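Quick one: structure for this chain?
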Amino acid sequence: MCWEALADAYMVRGSYSAARKAFEKVVSLEPDTVYSKLMIAGIKHKLGHYQDAIVDYQGLLTNNPDYLPALRGEGESQLALGQTFLDQFVDKNVLDCVQAALHVLTRAALVRPGLAGTWRLLGEAGSMCSVLPGEMVEVMVPSKLVRVGGGDEGEKMDKQGLLEVAVRCYTKALVLDGDNAGVWHDLALVQAALQQMDKAVQALRKAISLSPRQASTWVSLGLVYAKQEDWALAQHCLVRALQLENSALCWTNLGVVYLNLGEQTLA
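Got it. Here's what it folds into:
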């Protein structure tokens, strides 16, 4: 169809608003088209209209509950909406998004368990609560995600339990794609939140071996060493991060390290 081809061309150019109008024209002519509806939802996500995108993905899933692109799409939109609420300090809404993301992404993992990206998204959902106060975190998690042979029911989990689920999901992603430096980094951050510092160091070193010029990984390793009060190694990592990318936050962390080393002048 000409309208669909035009919409795809707009997408390639990055003209998302024009592409959306063209895809909406296709839907008006062919109400049952799945591709155009999926693309409209994806455009809404790209434009930051996460709630509208979620509604569209859920509409697609009404007729086809196992449609993987819509399951993944809704999960990604739930996570993006949760991050927005996190930035706005609307903590209760963050938990609602985490719970919704865990449920829809678990369905996606059951449809295609061999996709590392789905397991990484599940890890991101579980780890999103890491910065929230422990006493307020309580989320229903699908039993199938918690244990082998779990049923369709859900289980209430606290912050500790959610972070442990995140570790398992990231580990599963690494079984499928062991050379992904980003997943090793994400795993390390959750392990650090669980106070598993030695494991976090190992994961971060693995991430650095795969992608040695990623400044954020060096910063994370420096912060883990700082929590262990290994100030010399923390200094080395933060200096290396600054060699790769000039960052005010990294300079601040390095200043704290210098203070603990007794180097007030350098701080």
